[in-house]
Design brief:
This protein is of the alpha/beta class. It is built from 17 helices and 32 strands. Strand 26 and strand 27 form a beta hairpin.
Amino acid sequence: MFPYFVASGFAIAGAMMMAGPALIHLMNRNRYRTVHWAAMDFLLEAMQSNRRLLRIRDLLLMALRALALLLFGLALARPYFTSTDSALPGTSKPPHAILVLDNSMSNSLESISGSGFETSQEQAKQFLEKLPSSSQISVIALCGAQSRRITDPFTSRTDAADAIDKIVPTDGPGELTHALNQARRLAEQTPSLSPYVVVFGDQQTSQWQRLARGNPPEEEMPVILVGTDASTPGNAWVEEFGLPDGMAEVGMPTRIVARVRYQGEEPRSSVAISFKVRDNEVETKFADFPEGDSVQTFAFDYVFDAMEVDPSRMSSIPLTVSIAGDALPADDSRSLVVPLVASTPVVFIDQWSDSEESPALGRLGETWVLRQLLCPQTESTREEQHLIRPIHLSQREAEGEPLRAALREARLAVVAGIESPSVELVSMLRSYVEQGGQLAIAAGGDFDPHAWNDVAWQGGQGILPKPLEPTAVGQSLSEFSDDLSPFRISGKGLLDHSYFRLADLEETQLIDLYTDALFFKTVVPTDAEESPGPQNNAGNLPPLDEKWLSWTPPVSTIERVEDEGDSPASDIPATTIAQFDNGVEFVVERHVGSGRIVFFSSGISSEWSTLPSTNAVLIFDRVLRNQLASTFQRYNFAVGETALLPIPPGVGDSSIQLTAPDSGIVSSVSPRFLNEETRGVLIDNLDSAGIYWLSDRTQTDTPGDTAEGRSQFRIPISGTPTPWESQLERLDKDQFAGLNLPPQYRWQDSSELIGGSGLPMSGHSWWQWLIMLVIFLLIVEMTVAAMPSWLAWIVDRRSGTQSAPSASS
């Protein structure tokens, strides 16, 4: 098998230098000349007897010296052989080393010797020195904006080392699946090379477990995991931080919940948890964490000042919660941008108008409980202080231009208790949802499922998420039936949806809360294929203008619809969020256009259930507030996520800048059209945790101006780290074997890989034996040159044995 060389130039030089002793030998022979001298005649006989000895010595010295030079050149060239017995399969193709460098948050753990990322960089650069000279090298960052860029392979180790040095650590999560996909693309672009992947990093257990759960395909190229012997340190981090409803109500106490987690072998005591608003510390709490894995939840109450809010627009305020620092500072704080809104219009449509309702007479619309829940009215409160500004219409009032005028500014519409909607109401609400409005429909009152199905389903082109069975299940209390069979909300799978999770309550408490109410009557949503009645009456809905809302839905929602674009809205399936213990679906939602429809199959009034008298009515509050919050622009993103943000009209193309957290690095951002109407920016470099600031710098800036004074707008954006990235447990060889990854995935200790045993070669240590052989040859050469007497003895002995037969004959 023909050998390959790490540095073939030394092998060539050794072969060339091998001819040196022969040339010197020949040149020395030509330098001798014959001199006739009488005294020499007496030495002729002696020289004739030693001629054989000198010739043998010279030839032996020449061979030893030439061989020593050749072997020394081969040793410097570091020969190796490809073999199926090596760590990687052998091939005659030049190797293509694809180095994946872990620059995720967990690998930035600080220690006395430096960060884990710096150690990974050094290991990668040491590995470069062991690669054959014919190798091509690619360098991939595991996460961050740099992970999305791939370049042609490097042919120079220096260029590859520079690429390693240019990779910077981030606070993002390490996604091995993405890195391996990038490696496959590089391998496909270079089919003439033999690729293999080497992953340098802290080998976080959670990273590899996520890869294993995804059932990765068997790789054609080997993947080497460079093992680490670092111990797992203790770590505390802010795991969650947020508002239960996603929005803050101005002038009312707002609860902000933070969940802090600790994993470690030693307990931590008196850990400070600080809550800040606009970088101003508001409250600090202290907690003790035992050894092991523990979680504690902290609630902070804060009242946002009404003076901070412009009723005509949404304001955003950055909040931060932080804990006492440890060896991984990136996860010791977590930021949140809270939208402050006031007097947001919400349309409520039911059986009665405001003038017809009478609590004294018990004549209340089906939405009355919801209006009181979302916007409680007291003599001491002012309407503008509430999150919700209710617009209440009866079914008779919800027609024509009055309905359109009410919906034009509303972000949420609630319809409940109506016996049968009109075609005009269905058409108007359908157009409202397609433009981005949120619609909630609840049964109750005189709700007729047969009539609703005929008018509001329309083969999926109406406003029902699913068609309805023509008859209801159960009977309301007003029907005076002796055969009441009440049922409850099923707790199975209820908390899988974020609608119903509350940070300060345990799961059992939440289940008890939501299953407390009794229900007596419900309509039955069913699948479209099984529903009776007309299935394709979309033509019954009159056409409306395309755009008539006064507000624009969030950019992210628009982008989602465009991505799913070409399929009709009726093809988007509905999702069941909650159901009753009798199997009937209770809450069903469906995305239509840029908006969403949520359907409740039972009513809110006491005729259909006991919801008004129990805390289970909170389920409506949770769903409606979540719908309302989804209509505002999103400003909280995970680290590494791409952010789409609109900008105010009239902003120049060259004046938008993004200021990074902590470092304060300012980068320019180019605006673009995010859709046909909205102009904004796309930010794909949110690689640090904390608050970013997107602003417009005017041309008249002066160094003494404040940030607010020199910008027409200044928008906070939060980058939040991924919680599982803070779990610092390292993978060991036994755990790696337990992942049951495909056989192409190999574990290699860092010391062995840096020494070269992990390379796709065998005989990588032969250069050491060659050096030893060179030393041995030099010793023999010196022995032959300095003490030729033993060589003469050998020659004389051989001559004697040859002359003995001649004498006897």
